Amino acid sequence: MSYDGSIDADHSTYLIDVDAGVLQPPGGERWEFDDGLIAVRPHQMCVTTGIDDGEVKLHIELHDTQPPVTLDNWDEVAEASLTCQASLTLGELFTDPRPGLPQLAAHGPGSYRIRVSARGRDTAHEFPEEHSILCWPTPQAPPMSLKLTDQSGARYRHRLAQRRPSI
């Protein structure tokens, strides 16, 4: 199954929540993985956009098995696993899930891998930013950055590195 449409970024973010209703922004919990495109903790994935507030073009594909990795034509690509009891909900901050967006947990409860690809984050104020989300059922695996090349992500990673204590 595939879906083409859009999602609204708010505070340079949209979320994928596990078993959620109204999507809430990240709280005080630490992210287990954060590469400037996705930040992940056990019950949530935060996707970072280049535009602060506004529309991001969105392509979603739900697969039965792992799709091939495609890095061409994307600036940033990362993937991580989430496990749900009922749903994986994609949506904007502080709102009920947007009608028409597919339920990512198409195969029911279990563990899913979610691959996020982005392009146009550096030019999002001039041209539409585009994201692709691919999702498939599979056992849990560590998050991975597959391609990190845009300036939006580099600035974010630089700020993140400055906040980490040196050892």
Short description:
The chain has 167 residues and is mostly beta strands. It is 8% helix and 42% strand. The strands form two sheets. A six-stranded mixed beta sheet has the order 1-6-10-9-7-11, with no helix packed on it. A five-stranded antiparallel beta sheet has the order 3-4-5-2-8, with no helix packed on it.
What report would you give on this structure?
The protein is mainly beta and 167 residues long. The chain has one helix at 151-163; strands at residues 2-9, 13-18, 33-34, 38-41, 44-48, 54-62, 76-84, 88-91, 110-119, 130-137, 144-148. The strands form two sheets. It has a six-stranded mixed beta sheet, with no helix packed on it. It is globular. The N and C termini lie far apart (47 Å).
Strand content: 35-45%
Categorize the overall geometry.
Answer: globular
Number of strands: 11
Seen as an oligomer or otherwise, the chain set is single chain
Largest beta sheet, briefly? 6 strands, mixed
Structural class per helix/strand content? mainly beta
Q: Determine the mean pLDDT.
A: 88
Rounded to an integer, what's the Rg over CA atoms? 15 Å
Descriptive key words:
single chain, 167 residues, mainly beta, 6-stranded mixed beta sheet, 5-stranded antiparallel beta sheet, 1 helix
Topology:
Elements: E1 2-9, E2 13-18, E3 33-34, E4 38-41, E5 44-48, E6 54-62, E7 76-84, E8 88-91, E9 110-119, E10 130-137, E11 144-148, H1 151-163
Parallel strand pairs: 6-10
Antiparallel strand pairs: 1-6, 2-5, 2-8, 3-4, 4-5, 7-9, 7-11, 9-10
